[in-house]
C-alpha cells in the first residue's frame, strides 16, 4: 500500500491517503509562531495494522523539522512514537 501524507492547512491537519485518494488517517494540529502542537491522531479502522500511524508520525515530524518548528506532542500517539524513536526527541518543546 502506498501512503501519501499531505498538509491540509485549511483543516489544520495532515492527512494520509492511499493511491485511490481514500482517507486512511490524520493528525490534527495547532500552530503558533515556531511551535506546532499535535493534538490528535486517528487511523481509519480499515487501515489499522498497515503502518499508517507510523507513516503519519514520521511525516509530520519530518515536516516540523524541515520547517524549523519545535513540537508539543499533546497527542499520546505522537508522544509514544517519539519515545520509541529518540532521534526525534530534539524536536520536543521544553514547555
Short characterization:
It is built from two helices and five strands; from the N terminus they run ββββαβα. It has helices at residues 52-67, 76-84; strands at 4-8, 13-17, 23-32, 35-43, 70-72. This is N-acetyltransferase.
Textual characterization of the structure:
This protein has 95 residues and is α+β, with helices and mostly antiparallel strands. It has one domain (4-90): Aminopeptidase. Helices cover 26% and strands 34% of the residues. It has two helices and five strands. It has a five-stranded mixed β-sheet with strand order 1-2-3-4-5. A hairpin with a 4-residue loop joins strand 1 and strand 2 (13-17). The longest helix has 16 residues, at 52-67. The N and C termini lie far apart (37 Å). The mean pLDDT is 95. Keywords: Transferase. GO terms for molecular function: acyltransferase activity, transferring groups other than amino-acyl groups.
CATH T-level fold name: Aminopeptidase
Quote the beta fraction. 25-35%
What is the mean pLDDT? 95
Strand order of the largest sheet: 1-2-3-4-5
Summarize the amount of helix as a percent range. Answer: 25-40%
CATH architecture: 3-Layer(aba) Sandwich
Keywords: Transferase
InterPro entries: Acyl_CoA_acyltransferase, Gcn5-rel_NAT, GNAT_dom, GNAT_YJDJ
Domain N-acetyltransferase: 1-95, 6-93
Pfam family, one: Acetyltransf_CG
Amino acid at each position: 500500500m502506498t501512503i501519501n501524507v499531505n498538509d491540509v492547512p485549511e483543516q489544520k491537519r495532515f492527512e494520509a491517503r492511499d493511491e485511490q485518494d481514500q482517507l486512511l488517517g490524520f493528525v490534527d494540529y495547532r500552530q503558533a509562531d515556531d511551535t506546532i502542537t499535535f493534538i490528535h491522531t486517528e487511523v481509519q479502522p480499515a487501515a489499522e495494522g498497515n503502518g499508517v500511524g507510523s507513516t503519519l508520525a514520521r511525516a509530520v515530524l519530518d515536516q516540523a523539522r524541515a520547517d524549523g518548528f519545535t513540537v508539543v506532542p499533546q497527542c499520546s500517539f505522537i508522544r509514544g512514537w517519539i519515545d520509541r524513536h529518540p532521534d526525534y526527541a530534539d524536536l520536543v518543546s521544553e514547555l
